[in-house]
Structures
1.
Amino acid sequence: MSHEVFNWQINRKMTYWYPEHRPRRQFAGVFDINKCIACQTCSLACKTTWTSGKGQELMFWNSVETKPWGSYPTGWDVKALSLLGPQKWGADEYVGATVFEAAPKGERVLQYQPEDMDWCNVNLGEDECSGMIEKGAYLKIPHAVWFFYLQRICNHCTYPACLAACPRGAIYKRPEDGVVLIDQKNCNGHRECMKACPYKRIFFNVVTGTSEKCIACYPSLESGKSNRCFETCIGKIRLQGWINTPEKAQEDNPVDFLVHIRKVALPLYPQFGTEPNIYYIPPKQADPVFLRQMFGPGVDKAIATYKNAKDDPELLGLLLLQGSSDRIIERFKVKDGTAIGYTAKGAEIVRVPLKEPLYVRPYKDVALDVFRHNVT
Amino acid sequence: MQRKIIFPILTVLLLLWYCTPEASAQKKEVKILPEKIVSKFQSGVLQLTDPTSSLWLNLPANTVKLIPQDVQEPKLAQPAITSLKVRSVNNGTWIAFHIEWEDATEDFNLRADRYSDGVAVEFPLNPKQPPDHRMGSEKEPIHLLLWKASQQKAKEGTSFLALNYPNRWSDYSPYELPGSAVSPARAADIKNLLPAVALGNPIVPGTAPVVEEIYAETWNKVLVQEDQDAKGKGTWKDGRWYVVIARPLFTPDPQDAPLDGGSSYVSFACWDGVKANQGPRKMVTEGWLALEIGK
Ligand code: SF4
Ligand code: SF4
């Protein structure tokens, strides 16, 4: 069965297995690729919290891969993109086919069967740059030879391919927060979801015989706290919140501000058509052609806006609020050189200055009658 | 006058709706094939433990043709196992089906890219009026007996973790190291780390019976039954599967198809693991075969 739904990321109607049914609010995240140091703290925070059980040895619901060569599971993006064929953007919309529209007869989603070995090399291609560094090369932006880190969790898509593909109806999207879950009681281990997810964020557990995936740390989400991978991020690259559709965007909602107002954060491979809800601030040093394929035609503008953050106090303030609290910042304000994060009800969570205060102590401590020397 | 106009309009609208994908998906197709399976009466205990026994192989067999499942997505694109040899006996309280087919590979392993061989015997809950034979239809359920090679292997003690990853390391495995007994508290912790196990998902390898009884009322309503009475065993030998599936002719379970009336219908489905057959990607009979239960 196919239904007509609207996908704002490709700015057009498309077909989907079920009718359009958006949750009351949608969990979303913004990852600033520019700030990631690939420390993998996020990957391990997730691993120790959720996937330390038997049969989960090869599972990383959160992983960080080096682009252009790295991938986990191996080759997931290259395989999905070549299967989909040329992906063309028109002036205002995506004119190519989505994974739903390109599904062959008898299938619900365009898909492929990954190999078990694909999950065996979690950090394949780490820190490998795009090419050889020529003699005489010098630093310029974008870099002549580049790499960047891509942080990945399940996108808790608005139109999940995994959910569409499950013949048992064992995958559901929670109406209260849009989190996509596999019902572990009813999953029959068919792995249709694993084949269908173009981002390959479904994992098979050989001990339980069921498929498993990122659960968006829903117990902490329900109590207003950030997910493990957001909370523990060393580089403070992650911002968690709720996203509205563009026509309902609210300027003081951090995710809406970055995605809809400043348009500095973009979805990964929007052309797949699943309307993924993790958004990325593209890396300014990488090849724009590569980035356009990944994040769509908005890349150049997003990078220009990002580079201008120093003259955009609201954007700068919000970027500084990223990773500043373990609570979910649902509203924000920038005032008098300070960015302030609030709960949905307006209670202050955190405030950060736009400029780090600088204190200069006098050379002589009069009270103690000593000079302040650095004697080490 | 008004009535005369409204009635044809309604008829046209109804016809139009009938042609929509939704309506055609709901259209049930009941097909009764000319073949008949006769379950021979045989007093005494039925041979359920050795499917390669000559007690079975000397019985007359029906050849049952299979076609790819092609009504519900995901469909089976390429044909796999195209025919089964079926034999049946009953002893007045139990009925057993012996199913034999050619399969060059024995597929029982489970991991991301491995699928299991399997076979299913299906009956309508209402023996007088069978529904669509593939998964029943709303309020017209079917009763499925599913045998899977993976479940049998797991029941026999195969660990798919050890089989596929003999050198794995699990951080919490020290609690299970030989010589250090697992305390009940620790056992509960270990179980909770396996959500499907903690929730009692009947699919978990090693916990499900070798032959699983399923109740289905359309493709979206497939339930593993609470009462599991079926038995069975499969043996793969020289490129052929020999599987016996048995059940009581009558049980008080309202989800079981009654077979004590002497006749009903039966259909079959088969999965070839090496061809990634799984779930709806299966070979099925084209319709129901009449089932005559000898007394
Ligand atoms: S990223 Fe994949 S697993 Fe996650 S919701 Fe989307 S389709 Fe499903
Ligand atoms: S914890 Fe943050 S900085 Fe470290 S790898 Fe993960 S996303 Fe990057």
Note: The CA atoms of residues 152 and 308 of chain A lie 26 Å apart.
2.
Amino acid sequence: MLAVQLRELVGAPEAVDEALDLVAGFDGSLTGGLGRMGDRQAAALSAFAGALAGSPLGGPVGEAAGKVVAGSIGDDRLATLAGGRAALLGAVHDALLERLDGALGRSRSPWEDRAGEPGAVTPENLLAGARSWLHELAIAGWRGVDHDLVSAAGRTIEGLWGEPASRRLAVLLDGLASELRASCPVATMERVPERRWADLWTRAVLLARAGSWTGDAEPVSGRLLVLGVDVHEHGTAVQVQVHGVLEPADGGEARLVRAGVAAAKVDTIVGPAVWRLLNAYPVLLAALAERRVLDVTDMPLTAGGDLLWREDAARAGEPADPFTTARVRLGGATAPSVPPLDRHPVRIAEPVLLEGYRYADGAVSLDGTSLEIDAGRLPACGPITPALVKASTACIGLVRWDGGRWLLQPLALQATVRKKPVEAHTGDWALGPTDPKVVKAEARAGDAVAVLRERAGRLLRK
Amino acid sequence: MAVDIIGRVIATGDRRAWVLDEDDDAWERRSTVRVVPPVQARKLAKVPFVELADGRLQGVVSSGSDAARVYVSSITAGTHGNSCSTNNNRPCGGLTDLYLCKHLDALVTEGIRQYGQERVARYLRVEVGEGKDLIDCLNSHKDPAPAAAVFSRFLRHLAYLEVPESTEPVPELHWFPAAGAVG
Ligand SMILES: [Zn+2]
């Protein structure tokens, strides 16, 4: 990313702020609860519906908002409102991504609907259980959430985890429930994370309608050159998402893709130990730790740019330097389109290379234009620390957007520490930490994953 | 100085902190604010499970002598009633009205490691005087609580390590960034 590109990025599509004000109105009504709306909340909900009036969703959303304000709150109406909120944030996402693509000169494939055959489906009783809990949450509002209401989701969430086809909803509801549990009673909470919880609720309502929309995948073959690794985690889930450039074997244009693997976990498995939960993926982990290219053969790729990882379709190849990949291949690679229902600003995570910047006050700057570092996205399972960011001179990162500003999430750094060049990548510790201090701390703590697996083996199958 | 997407100044000198904190006006309007404080890594061999739930600090403590046996120990918030028994509801011989058993001792120690003293003290509603240990400030007395519920929560906890594999990407996890790097 050059200074001129960064200058083009900051500053805004104007309508973004207005759209988000309307979303905030909707979110406020969810905080107080749809079951007891005051005039202000009702007005905010109507304004929100009014914003969609010109769109195909306008009619249904307007009608649903009217009914809900009048106190008639059915599942279908909630789903319609959730759809409206998702559409509004989808429009914000599109405006932001278009600006980012424009600044970077990045080309993006158009969306193609792949109907495909229906995969495994989530049992209807589990989806109904999820819908009923989300309905109760909406009526009570965040302020009305207590321990009983949170616990009511327990069985449904447990059932969802047991069905691989409903993993997205299981992960999402478990994450939301644990935040609500930790915040109980929410009525006494000083501030409510309104946007966040409304986001999670909206996505859950959509997933609980008809299950996941990941869609069909087509086999691809070629060389996957890794750019960097993004890690997601809550108490009971971890996901490693690899961003890379795929050079198709048939000589087609290079494409930006992601390859993700995830695992369920418990809250006491944190830091570098999370990699051990992913030991079913030795080829991927070795390639990350050893910074090697991955040769893939007939690996399924979704229209949204996600490789559905199969170890037997991958082989770790020759060493490949991610910074070389970023310098030589990233600029010309085509980005994937975003699945319509996934469009939300939080999903914007575009790989970029920044060099020759100055660091000050939690931001890097190129020719006086600053980009804030996303300090909340430096995982404890890798070697990238705030201090290393400060000392860095080059960075492969993801451009993100949240809370009204653009952010840079570092995935790989070149830095100078005690006059020596060092390089660090989030995936460096995929086969175990390499920093002697961290190795020692890990040894002291013992292998949490092994301890719990042993206990599970002994107690769960008695 | 930095500007955000609509040209507002977002960084001025020393007001920038590394961690985006709650003092921020935009907090309610962020999608990725951290709500649950992270738990600290700790050794799990002796006390594989601790939680602040159901109005108790409760958990499971391995028996020192028998690998197949575990103790279920708990302290109730507010009253500080203590309970310790095997998972088959056999009372722990070490717990009396005067003394806490070693299992409860281990539970409190590991609970503090996991959640930090402040969070445990707040949950149990105990005032910890300066320089005092939390365990000495409890209004401890024996008050047997059923072990079955805690034990089944422990089994549910363990079951997470055995959920069937799925390779479907989870875009919802973009709302849950991994954090915690220090240094
Ligand atoms: Zn005991």
Note: Chain A has a mean pLDDT of 94.
